[in-house]
Protein backbone atom coordinates (compact mmCIF):
# COMPACT_ATOMS: atom_id res chain seq x y z
CA UNK A 1 0.00 0.00 0.00
CA UNK A 2 1.23 3.48 -0.75
CA UNK A 3 2.42 5.64 2.10
CA UNK A 4 2.04 8.81 0.06
CA UNK A 5 -0.61 10.87 1.85
CA UNK A 6 -0.70 13.34 -0.99
CA UNK A 7 -1.80 10.64 -3.41
CA UNK A 8 -0.33 9.86 -6.81
CA UNK A 9 -0.85 11.72 -10.05
CA UNK A 10 1.40 10.78 -13.00
CA UNK A 11 2.68 7.21 -13.15
CA UNK A 12 5.17 5.59 -15.51
CA UNK A 13 4.96 1.82 -15.94
CA UNK A 14 7.87 -0.01 -17.58
CA UNK A 15 7.94 -3.65 -18.62
CA UNK A 16 10.93 -5.64 -19.80
CA UNK A 17 11.84 -9.23 -20.64
CA UNK A 18 14.56 -11.12 -22.48
CA UNK A 19 14.02 -12.21 -26.08
CA UNK A 20 13.22 -15.88 -26.64
CA UNK A 21 16.16 -18.18 -27.41
CA UNK A 22 17.39 -18.37 -31.00
CA UNK A 23 15.15 -20.54 -33.15
CA UNK A 24 12.09 -20.18 -30.89
CA UNK A 25 9.02 -18.04 -31.52
CA UNK A 26 9.26 -14.57 -29.92
CA UNK A 27 7.69 -13.80 -26.54
CA UNK A 28 5.23 -10.92 -26.70
CA UNK A 29 4.10 -9.34 -23.41
CA UNK A 30 1.64 -6.45 -23.36
CA UNK A 31 0.82 -3.82 -20.76
CA UNK A 32 -2.92 -3.32 -20.20
CA UNK A 33 -4.77 -0.66 -18.19
CA UNK A 34 -8.49 -0.90 -17.39
CA UNK A 35 -10.55 2.06 -16.16
CA UNK A 36 -13.70 1.76 -14.05
CA UNK A 37 -16.49 4.16 -13.11
CA UNK A 38 -18.48 4.17 -9.86
CA UNK A 39 -21.57 3.10 -11.83
CA UNK A 40 -19.82 -0.05 -13.16
CA UNK A 41 -17.05 -0.87 -10.65
CA UNK A 42 -16.26 -4.32 -12.11
CA UNK A 43 -16.76 -3.71 -15.84
CA UNK A 44 -14.06 -1.71 -17.65
CA UNK A 45 -15.24 1.54 -19.19
CA UNK A 46 -12.31 1.15 -21.60
CA UNK A 47 -8.97 -0.64 -21.94
CA UNK A 48 -5.64 0.73 -23.07
CA UNK A 49 -3.41 -1.91 -24.68
CA UNK A 50 -1.47 -2.92 -27.79
CA UNK A 51 -0.59 0.57 -29.00
CA UNK A 52 -3.90 2.21 -28.09
CA UNK A 53 -4.58 5.12 -25.78
CA UNK A 54 -7.45 6.35 -23.65
CA UNK A 55 -10.12 8.45 -25.40
CA UNK A 56 -8.99 11.56 -23.49
CA UNK A 57 -5.24 10.86 -23.86
CA UNK A 58 -4.61 10.42 -20.12
CA UNK A 59 -3.35 6.83 -20.44
CA UNK A 60 -0.94 6.09 -23.27
CA UNK A 61 1.22 3.18 -24.34
CA UNK A 62 4.40 5.03 -25.23
CA UNK A 63 6.56 2.11 -26.33
CA UNK A 64 5.64 -1.39 -27.44
CA UNK A 65 7.82 -4.42 -28.18
CA UNK A 66 6.78 -7.72 -29.69
CA UNK A 67 10.04 -9.53 -29.01
CA UNK A 68 11.73 -8.14 -25.87
CA UNK A 69 14.73 -7.01 -27.92
CA UNK A 70 16.49 -3.77 -27.12
CA UNK A 71 18.00 -1.95 -24.20
CA UNK A 72 16.15 -0.89 -21.07
CA UNK A 73 12.39 -1.25 -20.96
CA UNK A 74 10.53 -2.95 -23.79
CA UNK A 75 7.14 -1.37 -23.12
CA UNK A 76 6.22 1.86 -21.37
CA UNK A 77 2.84 3.21 -20.31
CA UNK A 78 2.03 6.60 -18.81
CA UNK A 79 -1.01 7.16 -16.60
CA UNK A 80 -1.93 10.80 -15.95
CA UNK A 81 -4.40 10.10 -13.18
CA UNK A 82 -4.71 13.75 -12.17
CA UNK A 83 -6.17 14.50 -15.63
CA UNK A 84 -8.59 11.52 -15.70
CA UNK A 85 -12.29 12.50 -15.73
CA UNK A 86 -14.09 12.72 -12.38
CA UNK A 87 -16.42 9.80 -13.23
CA UNK A 88 -13.47 7.37 -13.23
CA UNK A 89 -12.89 5.88 -9.78
CA UNK A 90 -10.43 3.05 -10.37
CA UNK A 91 -7.63 2.02 -12.75
CA UNK A 92 -6.14 -1.49 -12.75
CA UNK A 93 -2.86 -2.19 -14.55
CA UNK A 94 -1.59 -5.58 -15.69
CA UNK A 95 0.34 -7.51 -18.28
CA UNK A 96 -0.78 -10.29 -20.63
CA UNK A 97 1.36 -12.74 -22.59
CA UNK A 98 0.29 -13.18 -26.20
CA UNK A 99 -0.43 -16.84 -26.89
CA UNK A 100 -0.24 -17.07 -30.73
CA UNK A 101 2.71 -19.48 -30.61
CA UNK A 102 1.33 -21.76 -27.90
CA UNK A 103 0.61 -21.30 -24.21
CA UNK A 104 3.36 -19.43 -22.34
CA UNK A 105 3.57 -18.52 -18.66
CA UNK A 106 5.65 -15.96 -16.78
CA UNK A 107 7.86 -18.78 -15.52
CA UNK A 108 8.88 -19.53 -19.12
CA UNK A 109 9.93 -15.97 -19.97
CA UNK A 110 13.42 -14.99 -18.87
CA UNK A 111 13.89 -11.87 -16.75
CA UNK A 112 10.36 -10.51 -17.08
CA UNK A 113 9.79 -7.58 -14.72
CA UNK A 114 7.63 -4.52 -14.30
CA UNK A 115 8.30 -1.26 -12.47
CA UNK A 116 5.95 1.56 -11.45
CA UNK A 117 7.30 5.00 -10.64
CA UNK A 118 6.07 8.49 -10.01
CA UNK A 119 8.87 10.77 -11.07
CA UNK A 120 12.03 9.41 -9.43
CA UNK A 121 10.09 7.54 -6.73
CA UNK A 122 9.65 3.81 -7.32
CA UNK A 123 6.22 2.71 -6.15
CA UNK A 124 6.55 -0.97 -6.95
CA UNK A 125 8.57 -3.58 -8.84
CA UNK A 126 7.72 -7.20 -9.64
CA UNK A 127 9.53 -10.05 -11.36
CA UNK A 128 6.40 -12.23 -11.65
CA UNK A 129 7.86 -15.07 -9.55
CA UNK A 130 4.68 -15.01 -7.46
CA UNK A 131 2.60 -15.81 -10.57
CA UNK A 132 4.99 -18.13 -12.44
CA UNK A 133 2.17 -20.35 -13.79
CA UNK A 134 -0.03 -17.47 -14.96
CA UNK A 135 -0.44 -16.17 -18.51
CA UNK A 136 -1.60 -12.72 -17.35
CA UNK A 137 -1.35 -10.72 -14.12
CA UNK A 138 -2.50 -7.52 -12.49
CA UNK A 139 0.10 -5.70 -10.41
CA UNK A 140 -1.30 -2.26 -9.55
CA UNK A 141 -4.59 -0.67 -8.62
CA UNK A 142 -5.26 3.06 -8.34
CA UNK A 143 -8.43 4.24 -6.62
CA UNK A 144 -9.85 7.74 -6.25
CA UNK A 145 -11.10 8.65 -2.79
CA UNK A 146 -13.95 11.02 -1.91
CA UNK A 147 -11.67 14.07 -2.05
CA UNK A 148 -10.55 13.17 -5.59
CA UNK A 149 -7.07 12.01 -4.54
CA UNK A 150 -5.66 8.91 -6.24
CA UNK A 151 -4.17 6.20 -4.02
CA UNK A 152 -1.94 3.32 -5.12
CA UNK A 153 -2.35 -0.28 -3.98
CA UNK A 154 0.12 -2.97 -4.94
CA UNK A 155 -1.62 -6.15 -6.11
CA UNK A 156 -0.11 -9.19 -7.76
CA UNK A 157 -2.79 -11.55 -9.04
CA UNK A 158 -2.21 -14.17 -11.70
CA UNK A 159 -4.75 -15.31 -14.28
CA UNK A 160 -4.77 -18.26 -16.66
CA UNK A 161 -6.49 -16.63 -19.59
CA UNK A 162 -5.92 -15.30 -23.09
CA UNK A 163 -5.22 -11.58 -23.63
CA UNK A 164 -8.67 -10.95 -25.12
CA UNK A 165 -10.45 -12.27 -21.99
CA UNK A 166 -8.01 -10.68 -19.56
CA UNK A 167 -9.51 -7.20 -19.88
CA UNK A 168 -12.87 -8.40 -18.56
CA UNK A 169 -11.21 -10.19 -15.61
CA UNK A 170 -8.73 -7.53 -14.47
CA UNK A 171 -11.01 -5.73 -12.04
CA UNK A 172 -12.55 -8.79 -10.41
CA UNK A 173 -11.82 -9.47 -6.76
Taken in chain order, the helices and strands follow as EEEEEEEEEEH
Helix content: under 10%
Which overall shape is indicated by the principal axes computed on the Cα atoms?
Answer: globular
Could you tell me the strand content as a percent range? 35-45%
Instruction: Calculate Rg over CA atoms.
Output: 15 Å
Strand order of the largest sheet: 4-5-1-7-8
Q: On the 0-100 scale, what is the average pLDDT?
A: 86
What is the number of helices? 1
Biggest sheet architecture: 5 strands, antiparallel
Strand tally: 10
Structural class based on helices, strands and sheet pairing: mainly beta
Ends distance: 17 Å
Low-confidence stretches: 1-5
Report on the architecture of this protein:
The chain has 173 residues and is mostly beta strands. It is built from 1 helix and 10 strands, in the order E-E-E-E-E-E-E-E-E-E-H. The chain has one helix at residues 163-169; strands at 10-16, 29-37, 46-49, 59-63, 75-80, 88-97, 113-118, 121-126, 136-144, 150-159. The strands form 2 sheets. The protein has a 5-stranded antiparallel β-sheet, with no helix packed on it. Strands 3-2-6-9-10 form a 5-stranded antiparallel β-sheet, with helices on one face. Strand 9 and strand 10 (150-159) form a beta hairpin.
Amino acid sequence: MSSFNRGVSKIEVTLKWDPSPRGQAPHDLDLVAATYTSEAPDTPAYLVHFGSRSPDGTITLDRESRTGQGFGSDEEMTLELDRLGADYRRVVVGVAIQQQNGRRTFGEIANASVRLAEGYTELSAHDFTGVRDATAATFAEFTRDGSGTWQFTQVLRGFDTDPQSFGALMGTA
